[in-house]
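Troubleshooting log. The previous run stalled partway through. Resubmitting the same two chains, unchanged.
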Amino acid sequence: MVTITEDIRKEVKDIVYRFFAEECEVDIARIHDQTGIINDLDGDSLMFLELIEIFKKKYSLDIELKVIGKYAVKHPVTTIGQLIDMQLLIIEHGNAILELDK
Amino acid sequence: MNWTNSCLQRLSNDRLAFIFPAFTSDYTDHPAQSVPGFGERFENFLQTAAGLEDIELLSFDFHSNNFLDDELKTQFITYAYSCTLSSLLREVKINPSISAGYSMGIYAALFDTGSVTFGGGLEMIRSAYRSLRSSLDGSYGMGTIIGLSDRDINQLIDKVAPGVQITNRNAAFSYVVSGSREGISCLLNAAKEEGALHIRNLQVSIPYHSVLLKYGAEEFTRRTKHIEIKTPETRILSLIDSSILSTPELIRDELYRNLFRPMNWFTAMETLMKTGITEFLECGPSTALAKNARFTEGIRFYPLTSIFPSPSATS
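Second attempt completed without errors. Output:
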């Protein structure tokens, strides 16, 4: 369990923006929270997976990918802002993220 | 030709591998469009392929994305594209230390290393497709599952899709499966319920690398035994077991088992890394293999555009 502070929120946002700017070869200034990951950036699920691995390492998270997958089925992510919110929930709740729906 | 790009100078042949894809699902990327001489040579290769195999290939056009629903034509076009690109790169002394063909990309790797002629590779592609197709009775396919472990997937196969098989590991938590169309469909649905981050049905009718193709692979060997295979001028890596294919005998055996034995792209990349191969060029019409390689730390795929910038990028 990690308590989400403003610093963590900013750090996560920064990592996500930089990641997509580099992977999708777009100017970071063109990315904002409403940017569509697939429609605007031509992103893919492997990028999502790579990003999860980055956060798993950075915050020493012990979470199963399939738990994230189950959560994502109920809460589909299409924009950068939604992805950041989901990453914050993953960092905060880990495997207990599914409990949020109960 | 202007090849004096700084990125080109940084490429080290000792650390370089050419990787050849099997198919593409979209030609509009066309990463080699800025490579000097590509258009003319591709046209020549395509004309040869049309003359030897299928006259309709002459109507291929990058922008209309035609033939993507035709497995055999798509393979021919991908092969011609790959052969064009690697031959141009070698002419300017970009010589890889090793080449590898991803799945049916093996035929382009053989051409690249001087092991078979362009026509020989075309004939192998046609023979493989027809031998495999005629050995199958029923509806078959392939799919990808991202986000589950091989253990999870095998448990799901036992439960809902007996006969389906994992036939490639692209990365940790990224797998390809082959089997009956119905089995693939059941497995993909179950994988999604189990928590897969992504599932996808591949647009193929042959369950490549599955044991279902053993009989077809034997037929392929019979049909292609007259095609000459020479000792490769540079090394070829097996994606089945990461061994080096250094003789015609080893290559012929690889061509046989490559049709019905699972491959392991992830292990092959790791093996190359351990031998000091850290730089890669994807010789094909898309960048799908480069994307798969992101999960192997320390390797670098050079986008063709970084070596051959388009005129608009340099002006």
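Takeaways: The first strand of chain B starts at residue 16 and ends at 20. The mean pLDDT of chain B is 90.
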